[in-house]
Design a protein that fits this description.
There is one protein chain. The chain has six helices and five strands. The chain is an alpha+beta fold. The chain has a five-stranded antiparallel β-sheet. A hairpin with a 2-residue loop joins β2 (42-52) and β3 (55-64). α4 packs antiparallel against α5 (91-98). It is globular, with a radius of gyration of 17 Å.
Length: 135
């Protein structure tokens, strides 16, 4: 660990997310994306933003009730990353997206990202120019 900028861990009691399906349009809302039902199975969330020398590291770890939910969420996020990369017209954005890694180990899904701050700044400036400063 370098210089932690943000570190957060939250335990989520099962009853907290039990009604989530009703708040998202019932079964129809949940059918839009396969991993939506997995959201109800999250038991622990941990989030870290760390500065390692000239790099920025971001890690999000989700603990689920079971391995199936973790796999479903990991597969969905991996698919979304591939879509974002395929539709991006900017090589520097695609390069950053390739640095985001999704790993599922049993009932835990981890999304991690590490890149030089200069590269992140360059991409955000480019995005600002491409979208008129709004993103």
């Amino acid at each position: 660990m370098g210089t932690p900028l943000v570190s957060l861990a939250v335990a989520i009691p099962p009853e907290t997310l039990a009604g989530l399906e009703n708040s998202m349009g019932g079964a129809q809302g949940f059918g839009m994306m396969p991993a939506m039902e997995s959201l109800q199975d999250i038991t622990v969330m941990a989030f870290l933003i760390d500065k390692l020398g000239q790099d920025l590291k971001v890690e999000a770890r989700l603990g689920f009730l079971n391995a199936d939910s973790a796999t479903e969420m990991g597969d969905t996020l991996d698919g979304l990353l591939k879509l974002a990369s395929a539709f991006s017209q900017d090589e520097s954005v695609r390069s950053l997206l390739k640095k985001l890694e999704i790993v599922v180990d049993g009932s835990t899904m981890t999304a991690s990202f590490q890149a030089p701050l200069a590269e992140i700044e360059e991409v955000t400036q480019t995005m600002g120019q491409n979208f008129g400063g709004q993103y």
